[in-house]
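Sample A.
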Amino acid sequence: MAHATIYVGFTVPQLLRGASRIFPTHSALVVLRHSAFCYCTVNGTIKSKRKMDHLERTANNFRQEIISQAKVCGMTNESERVKRLRLAVANKDFTFKAGQWVDFFIPGVSVVGGFSICSSPGLLEREGILELAVKHSVHPPAHWIHTECTLDSEVALRVGGDFFFDPQPGDSPVKLVLIAGGVGINPLFSILLHIADLHGYQEGKGNGYKMGTVKLYYSAKNTSELLFKKNILGLMNAFPGKITCRFHVTQQSSQICKELEPHVTEGRISEKDLEEHVSKDTLWYICGPPPMIESISKLLSNIGVPRNCVFFEKWW
């Protein structure tokens, strides 16, 4: 494999050798390439007796060939249980589409992590920076990020995934509805930031991008678990009428702050919330726990949304 040796104290082929039974070679991967959108079909309820790891779950997903060294250059707590990492990517040819994830290789940790990117492709292009927001868990890569990772820690990254939004200049504008549950906000926040970048390019340069409106529905237990909320409010203020958001909380016990309160609904995302957005030029992107995705998919089917307009990412 090209670009295989990573100088972070290990080589990626050595790390993957133990997983060879579940990790296909590049020639065996099913490569799905679409210029703008990739459709993933909803197949009903997940039935599994055990939790698959990242490599098993994504064995048939697209993966880039490039594996790049990266260095941690920033760490913040996005919430009590979610840590946000800024990573300086070494390889200048490393790219991704908004909504994709990375294989996350850690020296000394045999398990490969899989984390959705929460920053925009534009940030990587402008500054060589990629961001991840990782929830604490006992899973070795997540546990390492929360307990051992420090500034200047070195890792390696490879982009993969068939869930993305990548419009091209000259494409007809579409409306987007983004529906997130919990940390499922990560790839959708990347898409939201990408749309904001393209709106900025459209206004400043007139370079052929035609962007429609985007509505984000984001559900969590309470407002303290809503990730990126200040950034999202900032985007709404920067692009009024073009980017809007409704936060949903299901177990709120404390008072909601004044800044956030006008945008918060107590209760789950409902059919009534979604039906006003149904149109022939609307695309729907969903990311969250499988039960939520299945529930939302049924709601969309009930209100007449064609299956080929629904895109989703199931991780858990």
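Sample B, a different protein:
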Amino acid sequence: MNEKFCSFHNEKEFRDGQVESVSAGNSPPNDKNSSALLAFRGIPISELKNHSLLRALTTEANGWAPGVVSPEVLRAQEEWEAVQNIQPETGSQTDQPAQLISFSEALQHFQTIDLSSFKKRIQPTIRRTGLAALRHCLFGPPKLHQGLREERDLVLTIAQCGLDSRDPTHGRVLKTIYKKLTGSKFDCALHGDHWEDLGFQGANPATDLRGAGFLALLHLLYLVMDSKTLLMAQEIFRLSHHHIQQFPFCLMSVNITRIAIQALREECLSRECNRQQKVIPVVNSFYAATFLHLAHVWKTQQKTIADSGFVLKDLEVLAKKSPRRLLKTLEIYLAGVSKGQTSLLGAQKCRGAPAPHSKDLTFTGVCDLPPHSSEGTWPV
């Protein structure tokens, strides 16, 4: 049956010294070729190379010259080769997607490079004078332990660093955030409209990091790479795309990082840092707890983008006044999530028209509102 339905192409291949088959409708093979086929049957493969007929056919085939290739075939081959050479982004040197980067690996990168030029810019604490200094001394939070101040300075120094697209580690951080939030398995360009879908205002995320620097991206990385907070991040991300209550997710996150920086500089987190004998984990948890509280207020009080500035300002006051309360709420929430008992959004579904890009939204952040007191202003 196979011999009857073989292609004409296979018949030609046999004539060139390979396998002979008969296409449907063609004349049957002559006796000579039939006897040649029978001669091969029963011969072990290892002995075929020594068969005189096979060597004769091979010698004849060595003189074979390919026919003329049509222009259509050449064009198709060129197009296929072009497809194989496409890179996932401009300047990519590998076909392999970038590996995800953990928070600890990204942090280690900053711990090993020279940040002296950025460290000169930081102001570790708020400068207070007069009655404000006296009131803070008498009734304010305790000072950060001496052994923790280097770790605090590192946090503030990273907040001075911008996004450098030439640094491979910076690129991996961005791509990891994108993949974890969207579920994509493919790399993305460091510039493009896809960043607006994540809640940046434009095609270049670097332009939205004012006041928080690369620390804002490290906080997002912590949120999506920590198994305890990933579900929370994904739920808040879905809330940010609600057809009525939408907000720019990443831009909101940057503002919360600014609040965390303020709270650290104003020593609002010193008591908790001293208790845990750590700074970076406390700042990370404070950031996550503040984001969780914002999402809860946003959802339950039906806030919209027009309320963003006032919501953030109230959030800043609460976060500085009661950081321990926020941290405890986060602890309870994450414990419930791990048991499948807590959901920020519950059964809420995002129906209706899709949320617009962040560039179409009028968003007011912390830095866009007048400060509530002179102690709240500080240069970045």
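Observation for Sample B: The CA atoms of residues 86 and 192 lie 18 Å apart.
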